[in-house]
């Protein structure tokens, strides 16, 4: 893992966007793994600003969303199909036909999840996967006790996750109880991963994922097994790490061509 600690959430989004832009500039038809939720919003805003300024072209890229609620109408404003279209596809000028979201409305859920993994493989795999992390250590909707070998599948959302996502719904009772999510094994297949976290509420999860043992109780810790995982956090999210000064030193002393700024 490479750990980058920055002063503010905006800095986290800007530097993560620089890393993603580098991937797209080197491979215009890159395959992006797209996360939703609050954590990656600054990334998408920063990427959109680059697109608007003519510094980045994402029109040839394709994308696979990380997850989707089960049973929620496709046109519901909080379906991840709607969120990805609104927050990613439109502002980045991506081709909607090249962006896939798991089908949480499929009659045959198991077939839909198998087909989703097959589609990722057929596209050549994800070049860079964007991730956030939940306060309980989940990535995607892989809740604690998820298998590190898991593939895209249906999962029951933990009560804490439903409570955290209730802010996006008019009534907490409207938060779906199930989701489709890329599995930890699917995520680990990505060629590169960038995980972002902001705020003190993520400090325990970041400490467990980065410095704790690889454990099913902290799904984010599976990224310790990834060959190219970059963890970008603000000072508050880094507050419970023990090697903070080392992480800052190693990033500050990277050769200029390896930095993401």
How would you portray this structure in words?
The protein is built from 8 helices and 10 strands. The chain has a single domain (2-255), classed as Rossmann fold, CATH 3.40.50.1360. A 7-stranded parallel sheet has the order 1-10-9-6-2-3-5, with helices on both faces. The chain is an alpha/beta fold and 261 residues long. The model has no long low-confidence stretch (mean pLDDT 95).
Question: Short description, anyone?
Answer:
The active site is at residues 67, 136, 138, 143. Keywords: Allosteric enzyme, Carbohydrate metabolism, Hydrolase. The chain is of the alpha/beta class and 261 residues long.
N/C terminus separation: 18 Å
Per the CATH scheme, the topology name is Rossmann fold
Protein structure class: alpha/beta
Reading side by side through the largest sheet, how are the strands ordered?
A: 1-10-9-6-2-3-5
- The number of domains is 1
Mind describing the biggest β-sheet? 7 strands, parallel
- Using the coordinates above, name the CATH class: Alpha Beta
**Pattern of helices and strands:** EHEHEEHEHEEHEHEHEH
Question: DSSP helix count?
Answer: 8
Helix content: 25-40%
At CATH level 2, the architecture is 3-Layer(aba) Sandwich
What is the residue-averaged pLDDT? 95
């Amino acid at each position: 893992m490479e750990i980058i600690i920055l002063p503010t959430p905006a800095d986290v989004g800007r530097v993560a966007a620089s890393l993603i832009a580098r991937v797209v500039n080197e491979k215009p038809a890159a395959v992006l793994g797209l996360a939703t939720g609050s954590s990656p919003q600054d990334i998408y805003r920063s990427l959109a600003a680059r697109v608007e300024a003519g510094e980045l072209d994402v029109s040839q890229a394709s994308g696979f969303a990380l997850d989707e609620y089960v049973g929620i109408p496709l046109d519901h404003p909080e379906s991840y199909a709607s969120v990805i279209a609104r927050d990613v596809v439109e502002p980045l000028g991506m081709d909607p036909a090249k962006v896939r979201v798991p089908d949480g409305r499929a009659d045959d859920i198991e077939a839909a999840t198998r087909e989703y993994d097959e589609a990722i493989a057929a596209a050549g795999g994800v070049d860079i996967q964007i991730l956030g992390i939940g306060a309980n250590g989940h990535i995607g909707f892989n809740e604690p006790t998820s298998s590190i070998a898991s593939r895209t599948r249906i999962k029951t959302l933990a009560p804490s996750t439903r409570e955290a996502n209730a802010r996006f719904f008019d009534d907490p009772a409207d938060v779906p109880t199930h989701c489709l999510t890329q599995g930890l094994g699917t995520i680990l297949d990505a060629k590169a991963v960038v995980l972002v976290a902001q705020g003190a509420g993520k400090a325990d999860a970041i400490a467990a994922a980065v410095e704790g043992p690889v454990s099913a109780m902290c799904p984010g810790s599976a990224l310790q097994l990834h060959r190219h995982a970059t963890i970008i956090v603000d000072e508050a999210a880094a507050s419970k790490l023990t090697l903070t000064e080392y992480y800052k030193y190693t990033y500050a002393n990277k050769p200029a061509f390896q930095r993401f700024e």
